[in-house]
Design goal:
The chain is of the alpha/beta class. The chain has 3 domains: about 65-205, Rossmann fold, CATH 3.40.50; about 230-455, Rossmann fold (3-Layer(aba) Sandwich), CATH 3.40.50.12780; about 460-570, GMP Synthetase, Chain A, domain 3 (2-Layer Sandwich), CATH 3.30.300. About 30% of the residues lie in helices and about 25% in strands. The chain has a 7-stranded mixed β-sheet, sandwiched between helices. A 5-stranded mixed β-sheet has the order 12-13-14-15-16, sandwiched between helices. Helix 8 packs across helix 9 (about 260-275).
């Protein structure tokens, strides 16, 4: 790390110590980069409540909450957690859509010194149970207990979740407790009513204490817990602020899912550190998003490329006043050049950038706000202050010459120091010297800008969400009529990649994509459902005849793309 990086990191670590309050904060203009100190997570709302108590912090549906309101709710939830016996270091899982309750619960966990475990709310079965078991979660917040209660209770009864005690549900539910029930089910209203805000005792977490864990799947398909510290969570939010030049005057559109690393840092941490306003959407709806941009005067619009495409194609696009927006951020996959050209034409006056990040590294690469158009649009940026990047041979770790494709590797204070409860994967993903192996294929230019050219792994990148084929293949193998199955990604102009299921059917069987999707609906997440189905007589094999040739010139994907009879899912109107 260079001297500038070390000095900045040390300064940020100093700023995040207890005692930073409104007297230490400085306002900054939207056209200038962030240059204020970080606020400890436990005191984010308290700090801004003392400075601007009546300012709107969070808008969600018809709820409009000020910083003073949020300070009170977080204190009440903190007291409720402490009254329930939760201690610093305990893990509590959040598997819910974006909501007021999600924001309050997360910040209450940081205030109580607990660790938030993020779980995709559409997960069922092992996708849901593994993160709970891996982290020893003591409680789980969900939108509705109904869809998950039986699965979680069964796992608890069989000894699979010994630490789990309670499910908190945002919707009305019949509360259960007592000797005959393996779990306590409690509504959010009941939970928070038990807290006395004046009794809350915020815990002064150390910089290197863990604040949250996000699980990410690797080449093996086995989820890995990536834990981030309190310092990392605050510091990473300011990387976004520096790149986008955001400040207290900004209004963020919060449609990205907060269980994902992009949404977590960009929306759950950044706006409140800045004293800005966040407009929350539980899930993406294009027409509603356009309405909110106009009516709430959104200025910052971070999304996946797919969402911008949907906006521009929507019937309301030309009818809404979108002139309040001044900056946008794209991530998820590298979009085609014509997408940026179209965005530039249809969102005049907006400054858009691409960036790269991961659960393990946070937002590692950004293009500066005033970078050249070619750099902002067609690379994923350069290393943020304090971080280092290189392109190296994936096996040897030897650094490669500029312009030579190789594995993108990152090191610095924002990179996780370990995978939770998984020393084998920790060792496998780090080279000597602390370089983290990202698994992405990239090139590096003379100015330090990185271009992603592919992936080393076989993961499918569907609309910015990475999907492990082996997870789907295991479930599909149980579908009647499947002899052999192989799941691959195929190019999609909107999503980046589609999920294509290739099947060698049992003799005499005819398989249907709609039936396969219905079969998988209760077994995998909604965004893991296949987009295409291709029936084949046999799979092409690599030399030796064992492994399937997926991406060779005569490989599976090439054969699929040449087929006009593959079934493609069409959403029913």
């Amino acid at each position: 790390m260079n001297a500038e990086g070390k000095n900045l990191c040390q300064a940020n670590q100093s700023n995040s110590q207890p005692g930073a309050d409104e007297e230490a904060l400085r306002l900054w203009a939207p056209q200038g980069p962030w240059d204020g100190p970080a606020i400890p997570l436990r005191d984010v709302f308290g700090t801004w409540a003392r400075r601007t108590p009546g300012k709107l912090a969070l808008i969600c549906g018809d709820r409009r909450l000020t910083y003073a309101d949020m300070e009170g709710l977080v204190a009440q939830a903190t007291a409720a957690l402490q009254a329930s016996g939760f201690k610093p270091g305990d893990r509590l899982a959040i598997s819910a859509q974006n909501s007021v309750e999600l924001v309050v619960f997360y910040y209450a966990l940081t205030s109580a010194g607990c660790i938030a475990v993020w779980v995709n709310p559409s997960y069922r079965g092992q996708e849901l149970l593994f993160p709970l078991a891996n982290t020893g979660a003591r409680a789980l917040l969900v939108d509705d207990a109904g869809p998950v209660l039986d699965q979680v209770a069964e796992a608890k009864s069989s000894g699979g979740l010994p630490e789990l005690e309670c499910i908190y549900t945002r919707t009305e539910a019949e509360e259960e407790s007592g000797a005959g029930s393996p779990l306590r089910v409690q509504t959010w209203e009941s939970f928070i009513r038990a807290g006395d805000p004046t009794a809350a005792r915020p815990v002064e977490a150390a910089d290197d204490d863990y604040a949250m864990i996000i699980h990410t799947s690797g080449a093996t398909g086995v989820p890995k817990g990536a834990p981030s510290t309190h310092w990392q969570c605050t510091n990473e939010g300011f990387h976004y602020a520096r790149a986008l030049r955001t400040g207290p005057e900004d209004v963020f559109l919060g449609a990205l899912p907060m269980f994902h690393s992009f949404g977590f840092i960009c929306l759950l941490n950044q706006p409140f550190q800045l004293g800005a306003t966040l407009v929350v959407m539980p899930e993406w709806n294009t027409g509603e998003g356009l309405r909110l941009i106009e009516e709430e005067k959104i200025t910052v619009h971070p999304m996946a490329p797919t969402h911008y495409l949907l906006e521009m194609k929507h019937a309301d696009f030309g009818q809404r006043d979108l002139t309040s927006m001044r900056t946008g951020l794209i991530s998820g996959y590298v979009p085609p050049r014509d997408l940026f050209d179209e965005i530039e034409q249809k969102y005049p006056g907006m400054v858009y950038s691409n960036f790269w990040g991961s659960s393990e590294t946070g937002p590692g690469l950004f293009s500066p706000y005033d970078a050249l158009r070619e750099k902002r649009y067609f690379t994923v940026g350069r290393a943020v202050v304090g971080e280092e990047v290189r392109v190296a041979d994936a096996e040897s770790g030897e650094e490669l010459p500029l312009g030579t494709p190789g594995e993108l590797q990152v090191r610095g204070p924002n990179v996780i120091r370990e995978y939770w409860n998984n020393p084998e994967e920790t060792q496998r993903h780090f080279h000597a010297g602390g370089w983290f192996k990202t698994g992405d294929m990239a090139t590096l230019d003379e100015d330090g800008y990185v271009t992603i050219v592919g992936r080393i792994k076989d993961q499918i990148n569907r609309g910015g969400l990475k999907i492990t084929p082996s997870d789907l293949e295991q479930e599909i193998q149980g579908f009647p009529g499947v002899e052999q199955v192989c799941v691959i990604g195929v190019p999609n102009p909107v999503l980046g990649e589609s999920i294509c299921v290739c099947v060698v059917p049992t003799a005499g069987c005819q398989l249907d994509l709609d039936q396969l999707r219905a079969f998988l609906a209760t077994r995998v997440a909604r965004n893991h459902l296949p987009d295409e189905l291709c029936l084949m007589d046999e799979f092409p094999r690599l030399s030796g005849g064992v492994k399937i040739d997926k991406y060779g010139k005569q490989g599976l994907r090439a054969l699929v793309l040449a087929r006009e009879d593959r079934q493609v899912y069409r959403k029913k109107k």
